Amino acid sequence: MKKKIFVTRKLLKENEEKLQSLFEVILNPKDKIYSPNEIIEGSQKCDGILSSVTDPINAETISKFSSSIKIIANGAVGYGNIDLQAARDRNIAVTNTPDVLTDATADISILLLLGASRKAHEGRLAAEKQQWIWSWDFLLGKQMSNRKLGILGMGRIGRAVAKRAKGFGMEIHYHNRSRLNKELEQGAVFHENIEDLFKQSEFLSINCPATPETVKIINRKNLAYLPPKCVVGNAARGDIVDDEAMVEALKKGKVFAYGLDVYNGEPKIHPEYLKLKNIFLLPHIGSATKRTRWDMAFRATKNLEMFFKGEKPQDLVN
Ligand code: GLV
């Protein structure tokens, strides 16, 4: 008998067809954003859940899941939306989708740095209002070439950002939980702590996962270490940044500009970010290309398939 999977969000057609060929599937054709209770109710008679970044699956929700649920396949590389300990306690496997979104997300990281440093937001506003004329000092930004780029989190995405940034002639510095080997480092300079990294970072790209250790790690104290007029990009998670401290740094010009794709309490956006000019905002589209979204959902499906065949899923995280 086919295993039954509850899919929390509407997937691309090809991904839904693939799932239907393997499992009995409860889809979400209207793409409603379910509340935790609706996920609990909807998945009552299911064996697994295919979740997305928009599903907060905390300990309380997990404690109310039907005992038939054996796996949560999260369709994302990040899994901060799922309480891993609670899943472990109930013997529920959790998987993610690494690798397949590395390039798309690294591209967006570069776009955030470029969009922020070259005042893309202000440029767009001026163009839209037809209130502009070329002049020598119009919208002067900060150039990336030959600057030092600090990368916070040198995992797959951080390394792909480094590769791209070298094309701009940037010098790469990084901080990571542990130092990479020479082959992975590719000449990047390791800093043992955030203070040392930030002191070097004329540009800073945030590419670490959100964990209890990294939540609000971009705070008043650490922002103070950055050189004046630093450019910051965040393609990772909103909760890594203390928004109040960032707003203050942007207002004071300590941070020249901030580009971000991710937010605390998405889809809400801190109201000050919407007022500031030295901001470049995107609506969490780091992995939003058709190819990447296909690959992510196929990868989540593969994890489900392996799990129900009795194999260890390739992307088990707990
Ligand atoms: C997207 O934000 C992801 O974690 O895959």
Short description:
With 318 residues, the chain is α/β, with parallel strands linked by helices. It has helices at 13-22, 36-42, 59-63, 84-89, 102-117, 120-128, 156-166, 182-185, 194-200, 220-223, 243-252, 271-275, 290-308, and strands spanning 4-7, 24-26, 48-51, 71-74, 93-95, 148-152, 171-175, 189-190, 203-206, 230-234, 255-260, 279-281.
Layout of SSEs?
Layout: E1 4-7, H1 13-22, E2 24-26, H2 36-42, E3 48-51, H3 59-63, E4 71-74, H4 84-89, E5 93-95, H5 102-117, H6 120-128, E6 148-152, H7 156-166, E7 171-175, H8 182-185, E8 189-190, H9 194-200, E9 203-206, H10 220-223, E10 230-234, H11 243-252, E11 255-260, H12 271-275, E12 279-281, H13 290-308
Bound molecules: glyoxylic acid (GLV).
Glyoxylic acid is lined by residues 53, 76-78, 101, 286-287.
